[in-house]
Amino acid sequence: MKKRVLIFALAALAFFLATCSNPAAGIPGKSDTPGKSGMPGKTEGYSTFLEEIVINSPEISIRHPVFDSSTDREVAATVEAVQNNSRTNASGPKITSNAHSDDFPGIYFIWDPKQKDPGYLKVDAVLFDILDYFVLTAKQANTYWDFEIFPQSDQKQTADGFYVYYIPKVDNSKNINMVFLGEFKEKAQTTPPTADETSVSQTTLVQKSAMFTLTSAHTGIWRVYSTKTGGTALTDVTASFDAPYLTLTASGNALALGTYYVSVEQTRMFESSRLALTVNSSIEMALVSGGSFRFGQNGDGSSGNVEPVSTVTLTGFYMVKYEVIQAQYLAGI
Prior knowledge:
- The chain has five helices and 19 strands.
- The protein has three domains: 61-186, no CATH class; 199-281, Immunoglobulin-like (Sandwich), CATH 2.60.40; 285-331, no CATH class.
- By secondary structure, the protein is an alpha+beta fold.
- It has helices at 2-21, 46-55, 69-72, 168-171, 326-331, and strands at residues 77-78, 82-83, 107-110, 120-124, 131-140, 143-149, 162-166, 176-186, 199-202, 209-213, 221-225, 237-242, 245-250, 258-265, 275-281, 285-288, 291-295, 310-314, 317-320.
- A four-stranded mixed beta sheet has the order 1-7-4-3. The chain has a four-stranded antiparallel beta sheet with strand order 2-6-5-8, with no helix packed on it. It has a four-stranded mixed beta sheet with strand order 9-15-14-11, with no helix packed on it.
- It starts with a helix and ends with a helix.
């Protein structure tokens, strides 16, 4: 009898240790595969996406919005519903009406017709720093309706940085019984501009702009930097694009010679990587190396020269290699 009890105790201990070493074992819906949350379809991995990209990113902080009808209605953008004829089941994180969602933080949707202000959705604008758009899907009997959510052109934010949307379909429907996240799309990076010739030569040293011919580029917000990566955009040099020409323009008297790095950011996309563009001079210059020399004269100073003798040091500088005419000189070379 004692032997049987001992064997049973050892077996129980082994099972306990095995379970502790793998706490996820036997838990329904728990996955050991990174990026999988158990949600089917296009929303698969969304909770993991938010956790890795948003929650673990110190520069991104998602807030829980609260709807304020007295002010939020004024900045609401209208979203029309589109019937989804291809969907046959409700899959994705469920969105509770008039409450916050742990699966989808940063939104607040009032879709229950029994509650005040049905049809209003409030979204933390920070979400659109990482998402191009997301789709909320409502189930009405056996019909599904999609609402695509993204920052609309010239859409205003609330004073505390939220977008507000009004969805008439939800406001006018009395039998919507479920809303869930239908799909989402991460923000993509803008394709960087390209050019066959990445340098131009200026004919004078006082030109305020330089023009480059690009082989491919998108319209969007253009920025100019002094470095390949990092740093902030220059404020004294701007870029403008009128296909296929990109023009760099200085706000001061002249565009300095050197290399500039330009990028473009399309609407609802990340900024592109940077293209290096170099502004040279077609005027042939020669480098005069820096050095030191003795200057002055010792004596009574009657000759008018500087005294006493001292050492003067000059840094290197460029000088025009050949003679120039007066017109060139007056033009600023």
